[in-house]
Structure of Alpha-glycosidase:
Amino acid sequence: MLIEALFHETRVPYACPENLHSLRVRLRAGKGEIARCLVLHADRYELLDSCFQQTEAEWMASDQRFDYFEALLECTAKRLQYVFLLEGKKGERVYFGESGVSKERNRAGVFQYAYIHESALFVTPEWARDAVVYQIFPDRFANGDKENDPPRTEDWSKDARPGRDSFYGGDLEGVIHSLPYLRKLGVNALYFTPIFASPSNHKYDTADYLRIDPQFGNLDTFKRLIREAHRHGMRIILDAVFNHSGDRFFAFRDVLEKGADSQYRDWFFIEQFPVVQTPQPNYETFAVNVPVMPKLRTENREVKEYLFQVVRYWTEMGIDGWRLDVANEVDHAFWRDFRSFVKMLNPEALIIGEVWHNAVKWLEGDQFDSVMNYLFRDCVYRFFAEQTSDASEFDAELTTARISYPDQALQVAWNLLDSHDTERFLTSCGEKEERFRLAVLFQMTYVGTPLIYYGDEIGMTGETDPDCRRPMLWDKEEKNQALFSYYQRLIRIRRSCAPLRRGSFRTWLADPGSPVYAFVRSWQGENAGIVLNNSDSWQNVSLPLDTWAKRNWTDLLTGEKGQASGNRMELILSPYQGMVLV
Ligand code: ARE
Ligand code: CA
């Protein structure tokens, strides 16, 4: 047994309390090394070996290098000591504990999870598990009020190609008018990129955090939007841009005017006085030299209090959550207090960070509920769009992304194909709609929350920012109606099939060199099996029955029924066909 590959630690994601009396523990081992994994566990104060319970850890997934096993340990006392007992493929047995690996139980020592505190439990909002989120970029979604259009508003047409400074006149009134459309699509949560006052079209350079941008409407419009959206069964999530303000934010204006004498000088990271914006800003900004976005010193108590007052104002108005911009560059202490504060105001509020890389540091239960899942997008991009990975590589990459996070976060991670910061996924697929459709099917059936970028559902295309932000197509002739119906159908399937929303995940088929990928989601004894043919040729597929555990199946997409013979399920899939079997 390759003992160098063994890994466990008593923290997320290797040890995650499920509730006060159970701890989910995970073990990493070399690929194909372990035949059986047991966990021996007891109250920390137990001295007698004979009083240790045994729980079998099950294989949960494999990635490129490792196998992962998982067990749920019951602990009445909330305190735990445990040690893994591993059996290798050749029958050899070793213990693995805090002191190391040994044939002798005592030498291996034990891992200790000292106490499960109520405050340390990771609870994410229940509603988020049933959510399908729709992302709206307000200037480009719908223009419901021509009166508030900015000067130099450009033509809203299918040929529009936005530049960095284009305005199209979209607003909140337009969103209110479109709620029936969104309801028809089937989504039940709306995420808005920023809507507070700012000079740009994207509004990430906030001038006034307490005011709706007049191009989008006013406070009254926003309150009506919340009311109407809620009446349509839709939640509202706003963008929290706290890493930086805009340069027209009152505090930054004051620093520009008064320099070192400004009482707000420590709200930012000023390198030198007087403060200049050109030719290069002499203060920290978002990214590299973006003068209109001075970085906020969120560690400063006054800044934090100011922003928390902003958070209180909008949260109390009735919104259902926050998406945190550049969440990875704001200090952890800020986010910890932010979580307590938001959940105090509204325990059901959802908190989603924008992090493009592994975000486990923020997902231990004390900061975000989850993240925009760009790791998911990377895997999906390589498999469906580029087609540079086979089923086995796709599966391994997904596993690496999945096992990085605790289950609570994973279940509500925003799985996106694209966003206002990336090229449109249909464009990534070379506008080959069948590939795009298969990726959407995957998005709607994988673990986590589907996040739909406005217009994807009707076949909009576009290169990266700013081209991916074209005005929404509303003309019947211009929309891909068939694609819209397909989205509707998939959303309906997701909403009617609990395993797709809450179920565990098991790889079903992922052979090297093969374009066929299959997996099973299970929830309370119910299974949903997803089979995807990511190729332009017919595929004969033979699936083992043990993961599926029954003989009959119905494809929710076509209504086709079938039966397995022997101990395999044989299927024939047409090019780019996907199936959702129950
Ligand atoms: C403009 C230009 C961009 C340029 C950028 C930086 O259009 O081409 O890359 O400036 O100089 C908003 C606007 C953007 C605007 C930007 C600055 O929407 O149009 O872009 O302001 O004026 C990183 C961050 C991530 C950030 C992306 C854009 O980590 O937080 O960059 N995303 C949020 C929002 C944006 C918003 C801002 C932040 C600023 O969603 O819309 O931009 O408030 C890799 C890295 C990521 C990196 C990603 C994209 O994968 O791992 O860290 O994200 O690439 O570059
Ligand atoms: Ca308008």
